[in-house]
Amino acid sequence: MNGVGIVFKRELLSYVSTSLAYLFTVIFLVLSGIFTFYLGHFFERGQADLEAFFNYIPWLFVVLVPALTMRLWAEERSTGTIELLLTLPVQPFVWVLGKFMAAWVYLAGALALTTPFWFTVNYLGDPDNGAILAGYIGSWFMAGGFLALGSMFSAATKNQVIAFILTLVVCFLLVASGFPMVQDFFSAWAPNEVLDLVADLSFFRHFEAISRGVIDLRDVLYFGSIIVLGVWATAHLVKRTASN
């Protein structure tokens, strides 16, 4: 785990020292504010909560997280630095886990910067702070799921654009599969087992329950499974690159 800590610090410092990370953070905060207070009709609704913020944040992650993850491994492969990294006395899994943890902590920092929204609703009313805290925890777990998938697709190709598109499409499908429009499409011809499977795969369905303040172990295990599977697949792909 010591090796993971070294890689984690190296990668986290790279986020702090690059303008791209600051640009990502600014875009995330601006869009979060627009969706929460303008498109979410916060003041017209007259309710002191962050329902609009948590309704839109899956869609923000669908677009922004692939932009963050596309360079995790695709850049290392296209520039050839991955061969140099893999000659060091560090296992591929250590590199993968260190990079993933750094990106996940970076996203936790971006989420933390939206806490002024939380302070605002407390100033204006009497919100359910437990539900809001659960929403933030669920957002972080969901971000981890997106990150793990993005890391996997980034490790599968040298092309950052392809990594971005693959992650975007898969994450979009995983979020949209829980919406009534998609459910209605499958209900017209598919058996109930398929319908339930499609709904169970939805990021939004599992996140929605947590954002209401209900932390079900099944939802936590769902996101945990996506993270473990994505990190494992990334390590496998990086290890295969090392052996070629």
User: Sheet with the most strands?
Assistant: none
- What series of H and E elements makes up the topology? HHHHHHHHHHHHHH
The mean pLDDT is 87
- The Rg value, from CA coordinates, equals 19 Å
- Strand tally, please? 0
What class would the helix/strand composition place it in?
mainly alpha
Euclidean distance between termini CA atoms: 26 Å
Question: What is the overall silhouette?
Answer: globular
Number of helices in the DSSP assignment:
14
* Helix content class: over 70%
Proportion of residues in β-strands: under 5%
Uncertain spans: none
Which labels suit this protein?
244 residues, mainly alpha, 82% helix, 0% strand
Summarize the structure in words.
The longest helix has 27 residues, at 129-155. The mean pLDDT is 87. This protein is globular. Helix 4 (51-69) runs parallel beside helix 9 (129-155), helix 9 packs antiparallel against helix 13 and helix 9 packs parallel to helix 14 (217-243). By secondary structure, the chain is an all-alpha fold. The chain is built from 14 helices and no strands.
What's the structural blueprint in terms of helices and strands?
Elements: H1 2-16, H2 19-39, H3 42-45, H4 51-69, H5 74-79, H6 81-87, H7 92-112, H8 115-124, H9 129-155, H10 160-176, H11 180-187, H12 192-200, H13 203-211, H14 217-243
